[in-house]
Amino acid sequence: MKRFLLLVLLAGAWPAAAHAAAPPAYAGQCGVPDTQPVWAEFGWQNPQFNAILGKQGIVVGVSSGGYGAQMRATGAATVYFDLNFKNRVGTTTAPADPSVIPARVQSFFTYAQQQTGCTNPVIVLNELSGPGLVTPWSANNAQYRADVLAFVQGLAADGAHPVLLLPSAPYTGGDGGVWWQQVAQSAELVREVYIGAPVTWKLGPVLGNRNLRTAYRQAITDFTSIGIPAGKLGLMISFATTNGYGGRNELQPASAWYQVAKWQSLAAQQVAAETGIASVWSWGWGEWNPAEQDPDKPYAMCAWLWARSPALCDAPQAIPGFDASKTEGQLSVLPAGAQCLVGKQVLSNGDIAQLSAVTGDPQTAYSALYERLVESASYPVSAAAVLAAENAVIRQEFRGSRSLYVAALAKAHASVPVARAILADQLRRAEVERYLPAAAPSASQVQTFYASYPDLQVRLVQAKPPPAWLGRAGKGLAIADVAPDRLFTMTTGSSASVLTSTGTYAVKALQDAAPLGAVPLGQARPAIAAALKAFAQGAAFETWSVAKQRGALATVTCAKDDLPQPAAIDLTQYLPFLRLG
Fold first, then answer.
1. For the whole model, what pTM was predicted?
2. Residue 322 domain flag
């Protein structure tokens, strides 16, 4: 049976582009829906495909034969799809003689008009060879690129709308970038982004969809980064079943493939809405050989179309057990104003802006807030504990004056809720550190510390109950930067109640502060050991926290997939008077 080629362009119901992007120039002409983006499905003459695609609002791409007229009779429009572009312009090693290009343009354009029934046809050119070849090009490749440019310029001059398919990432440096900019003036550039369905399925709905969106965005950014507008760009996605062509790749069961097809559609919709690209195309519906004669293709096509608009194909009805969720793994789950959804907790843009006023850096604020949400899911802190810490800070740092405390917060561009959250961070960290192992320091480590920090302040104090910063002793030397700062501002002989992140202690200053180097090593050894253990616990906490944050990224959903950088951030560096010790 004679085989024909078809390509389908259809418009689905989907969100308006974030930048109110205009439809491509060919939208609204010869039956092509006037939408942004225009959706394109490469298909095949198959009764099941025809039943899905043969309807008004669909544009079928044809190469030869009577299939174009047949599809137009169903109410569909037609465009031309050329699988033999190398016959027009040659290859990178054997380019066409430039003298033949004008005549080939004219004959090809006329033929495309006849096949599509359109005066100004869309002509898809499959495909450019060697888009990633670096400059300087060989003489043959330079001629090949000149032939391609002349061909698309000739088609555009005649009134056609060339669409150039690109099988791999482009090289855009030097003269290469100039060439891409020239081609984009006459043709739409459609990047083929073929990610095997098993890869996406194995990653699951969150990571799988994120991976698709990231790859699609990057394909567009490769060109927009050199000044080519998104309205001159498109994406092509594969549904081939032959291994190595980025489609099904033997994914089983078939229901998994249908889900991936749905995810591919939703991911493409998201990126098209964000970027304002001209088109989204698919590939691989053709039954070129026995390996491609996959009886599951019509169902994958239905899932792909349904995800865009249920009016295009009723996947839940056609596919038993089909998962009809359009939110799982999608950015649409984000509430208004949210940057991320961390479990069930919202990380809002407002919260980032508020903390950025304190840190002076939105990325630091973003990471700190993400860290807080991840840690607090496992280790919540009571409101009573936070209020007790706040009262202690006011008493110890501001002579009991709440107005002075609030004024200090305002000067640091912070609010009371922001400060309370930072106090909770410290209490949470102290709770976590209790369960993290920290090896006892060696004698050589103690000696090295003693020799390295002779100017570090120490003070003999008495504390009840025995705190970790005194090595769990009731009396000993406290070392600055480990023990509470309050210990070094007290008058010798005075007593005070000191609240820290690990509890409240009754402290008495027994001697004036002195440099560590002025104290014999034997006397300082317990304090140094306590300090080194505290440092080890701090390092253990940071390792624990970053690992936990990285693990949580697998379930986090963030706007435009702009994820936070996992980090352990001490916000008291911006508000030192909140440090609990």
1. 0.86
2. yes
Which of residues 572 and 468 earns the better pLDDT score?
Answer: 572
Would 538 be classed as within a structural domain? Answer: no
Whether 178 and 40 map to the same domain: the answer is: yes
* Enclosing domain of residue 368: 338-437+544-578
- Distance in angstroms (rounded) separating the CA atoms of residues 171 and 134: 6
Has residue 260 been placed in a domain? yes
The pLDDT assigned to 50 comes to 86
How many CA atoms are closer than 13 Å to the CA of 325, on its beta-carbon side?
A: 12
Q: How far apart, in whole angstroms, are the C-alpha atoms of residue 378 and residue 369?
A: 15
List the structure tokens of 392: 């202690």
Kindly state whether residues 555 and 488 are assigned to the same domain.
no
Q: How far is 575 from 415, CA to CA, in rounded Å?
A: 11
Residue 1 has pLDDT above 80, yes or no: no
Answer yes or no: are the C-beta atoms of 25 and 49 closer than 8 Å.
no
pLDDT surpassing 70 at residue 200: yes
Whether residue 160 is predicted with pLDDT greater than 60 in this model: the reply is yes
Q: Which helix (H) or strand (E) holds 152?
A: helix 139-158
- Is-contact 162 81, C-beta < 8 A? no
In sequence order, what DSSP letters do the residues of 226-272 get, joined into one string? TT--GGGEEEEEE---STTSSS-TT-SSHHHHHHHHHHHHHHHHHHH
pLDDT of residue 438: 85
Secondary structure of residue 22 in the 3-state scheme: coil
pLDDT at 20 over 70: no
Q: What is the mean pLDDT of the chain?
A: 92
Asked if 157 and 182 sit in the same domain, the reply is yes
